[in-house]
Amino acid sequence: MLDCLELRNISKTFQDTNGETMAVKDFSYSFKKGKFVSIVGPSGCGKSTILSIIAGLEEQTSGVILLDNSKLSNRTCNIGYMLQKDYLLDWRTVYKNVLLGLEIKGMLTSDTQNYAQNLLSKYGLSEFKDKFPSQLSGGMRQRVALIRTLAINPDILLLDEAFSALDYQTRLVVTDDVYRIIKAEEKTTIMVTHDIPESISMSDEVIVLSKRPSVIKNVYNIEFDIPNRTPLTCRDNPSFSGYFDQIWHVLNSE
User: Is 20 exposed, middle or buried (0-12, 13-18, 19+ CB in 10 A)?
Assistant: First the structure.
């Protein structure tokens, strides 16, 4: 399987009134096509900074980003970015919210509108397409936000604490829904989360970072011998606690 995205020796230093602060130091990792990778680490260690660099919202101080072994320039990779808040516009219907990214990117055509409508239908939201965000539950709003992100057909999907605003019970249901959708669409996904169980249950690989300036301390390949794996079935698997103990031990050593 070819590498989809490679970060090679990425470092990021911020300038402030007190001088320089290094957030990320020599981050190197190859993200495989179709894999779901989580990044966990102490608060303020630079997890979200890594996503911002991938998305082109921040420029790395040093290092290179490669896409299929070619240097990524001019943001040739189509990247979808889903944040903690859903940022649905209250005055637009569900369908109009789903089209927003396509409008912003100048990608709104009859084909992309059909694709967006197919996504809504495929994942049980077509009957709500004329509703407004205020008429939806928190979990359903996040599903709409995901469909809006997928409507641009991104090569890489970035999730930045995308479920942390939800209550615990809703979060469990939504992560199951989101995981099913992402795997069905075969999207390469990179997720930042503070939630260790969430990272284990959803991911193929978990990267554990140190405190700032963050470096990679460990990488865990997450494997469950479960037919039709879902986040909820992973949490009930005997291997789950073993992964949790290992990751918790590394984070606690910080």
Answer: exposed
Residues 6+ apart with CB under 8 A from 249: none
Three-class SS of residue 72?
coil
pLDDT at residue 1, as a whole number: 45
The tokens of 63 are what? 């290092």
Q: Is 18 exposed, middle or buried (0-12, 13-18, 19+ CB in 10 A)?
A: exposed
Q: What is the pLDDT of residues 43-80, one digit of tens each?
A: 888 899 999 999 888 999 999 998 877 776 545 568 89
Cβ atoms of 180 and 233 closer than 8 Å: no
Q: Is the pTM above the cut of 0.85?
A: yes
**One-character DSSP codes across 184-231:** HTT-EEEEE-S-HHHHHHH-SEEEEE-SSSB-EEEEEE-----TT--H
Q: Which of 50, 32, 45 is nearest to 159 (CA)?
A: 50
Pair of tokens at residue 33: 């096509």
Report the pLDDT averaged over residues 12-29.
89
C-alpha distance across the termini of the chain, in Å: 34
